[in-house]
Amino acid sequence: MPASPKILFRFRRRLANTCPNWILLAGLVLLSCGREPGRKSLYIFAAASLSDVLPAVIAAVADSLPQAEVRYNFAGSSVLARQILAGSPADVFISASPQWVQFLIKKKRIALEQASPLLSNRLALVVRADNESVPQRLEDLRRPDIRFIALGDPAHVPAGIYARQALQKAGLWDALRDRIVSGQDVRAALWFVEAGEADAAIVYATDARVSSRIRLAFLFPDSLQPEIVYTLAVLREDPAVRRLGELLRSSKAEEIYRTFGFIMTHSAP
What we know:
Blueprint: H1 5-31, E1 40-47, H2 53-61, E2 68-75, H3 77-85, E3 92-95, H4 98-106, E4 115-120, E5 123-128, E6 149-152, H5 158-169, H6 173-176, E7 180-183, H7 186-194, E8 200-204, E9 214-219, E10 229-234, H8 239-247, H9 251-259, E11 263-264
Parallel strand pairs: 1-2, 1-3, 6-7, 6-8
Antiparallel strand pairs: 3-10, 4-10, 4-11, 5-8, 5-9
Helix pairs in contact: 2-9, 3-4
C-alpha cells in the first residue's frame, strides 16, 4: 500500500535533517586530506547562513594569508558548538547567536576575551518564486492554504529561536505552532520551501537572496525584529589564527558582508 503524503513528508523531513550530518562528517574527512605542502590549514566553523559570504570574504583577503588554506564547516550553531566541545579542530567559531559562544565559554573551551560581536541580520518570510498568493504580513500566515511554515529548530537553532520569539511577540506562536516544520539549520528551512515541502519559511534576510527558487515575501516589522548578533570567537593562540580573526573584521571584509546584506556591528579597522 503506498505511503500517505503525510508519511512521505515526515520521511523527507527526517532525511533533510539527517543528510547534512553525513555531508558534514564526510566533508571533515576530506578537509584533512590533500593539503598543499608548506601550507597550514585553518578551520572556520560558522553558522549555515554564512556559507555564501564567508568564502567571498576569504577570497578577498587571501593575499594576507599566503601560508594558510582556509577550510569551512557550515552547520547550525548548536551543532558546531557541540562538535567543538567534542574536540573538532576548529580555529574560529562564528555563531549566529551569542548563546552558543557562551555555552563554550562556560565549558572552558573559549576564553571570554576571545569572543566579540561581528554581524547583525534581520528576519524575513520567504515563499517559492512561483507562489501566486504571496503573504503580505504575519497575520496572513493564518491562511488555510499555508499548511507548513519552515524554520530552524526553535529549540536550539538561532534562526528558529529568533523566529519563535518574534511570533510570540506578535501573538501568533500558539496559533501557528502545529504548522511549524523544524530544520536542522536555517538553510534546511529554506530547502523545505524550495522543494515544495513547506509553503513559507522564516529565515534571515540574507538567506532570501541566495536562491532563484524562492522569493522574499516581506521583512519582519522593526517592532518584531529580535536582536540578531553573530559572534566571532578565536579558539587558538596562534599567529595565523589571530590574523584570520583580524581579517574577518577588516574593512575589506565589511565591504563583502554588506554586499551580501549583513550589517557589521562595529566599525572595521
